[in-house]
Amino acid sequence: MASTDRSDQLTATGVARPGGPGALSGRTVSRIGYGAMQLRRLDRAAAISLLRHAVELGVDHVDTAHFYGGGFVNEVIAAALRPEDEVLVVTKVGAEPDPTGPIPLRLAQRPEQLRAGVEANLKSLGLERIPLVNLRRADNGPGLRAEGDQIVDLDDQLAVMTSLRDEGKIGAIGLSSVSPDGLRRALPAGIACVQNAYSLVSRADEDMVRICLAEGIAWVPYFPLGGAYAGLAKVADEPAVLAAAQALDVSAAQIGLAWLLHHTPHTLLIPGTADTDHLRANIHAGAISLDGAMLASLDAVPSRSGDIEV
User: Fold this and answer.
1) pLDDT tens readout for residues 141-200
2) Positions of the chain with pLDDT lower than 70, given as ranges
3) Which domains does the chain have, with CATH numbers?
4) N or C: where does the chain have the smaller number of CB atoms within 10 Å of the terminal CB?
5) Is 68 a catalytic residue?
6) Active-site hit among 68, 198, 222, 229
7) Are the C-beta atoms of 235 and 198 separated by less than 8 Å?
8) Is 168 exposed, middle or buried (0-12, 13-18, 19+ CB in 10 A)?
């Protein structure tokens, strides 16, 4: 899936692509992008500065959602990005803020809620058309589970998503937290990417990875280092990861990201951070070379997938 055209090695701003070139929604992008959720931890000026720095380092696809900070993150993206940056903005629908709940998020799965979510993203991003919108399901992985009127058939959701695409409000459809059966059902609608929880220590979705590879769909894992919830294994705790990090004089987190890039060519990363040093470290992971012996050692790490609900 990665391009071999030498002209694709640079971003629109002339910067070498972190991790090399990959494909997303019909575009050539850097294989390392940026997950913007952590920008909500910063004030507006600091958030804009961090995002500008990411672009300067070669990031040209950003993952966001209107429910990140109640629109704050999207508004930062609208202020920070310039047309000449040619950054592909990817957002998601299927959830909404819940400031008074046990966690500040609740599902919003009904078709009318999906449409409202797209409209909210359009407004906060200041766009007339969003290049790619992920439908955040609740089929698998750690996270929320649908109950009551939030149990909605995938076909009903895809119907409103394709209508929004036909209307020109979104450019492409992705899926998040979806099962293999759900992905297979959705293929006729045209799916640009899949975002599921996946890492070196959590590989229950290996079949999904292969389906995406065969179908030319970008695989964009979230929680790429594991450990997002209590009880989930952490990539940085694995002896093989620590040994590789020591041998290459890099961090365990960088080894975890580099392994994902080596694992399959259609993998794109969206690591998030609110820290400039961590941002640079994440970008540098795209330049780490893992030899055959090191890859074999990392591939042998057992998957410790857990289905944890919150």
Assistant:
1) 777 889 999 999 999 999 999 999 999 999 999 999 999 999 999 999 999 999 999 999
2) 1-7, 305-310
3) 17-299 (3.20.20.100)
4) C
5) yes
6) 68
7) no
8) exposed
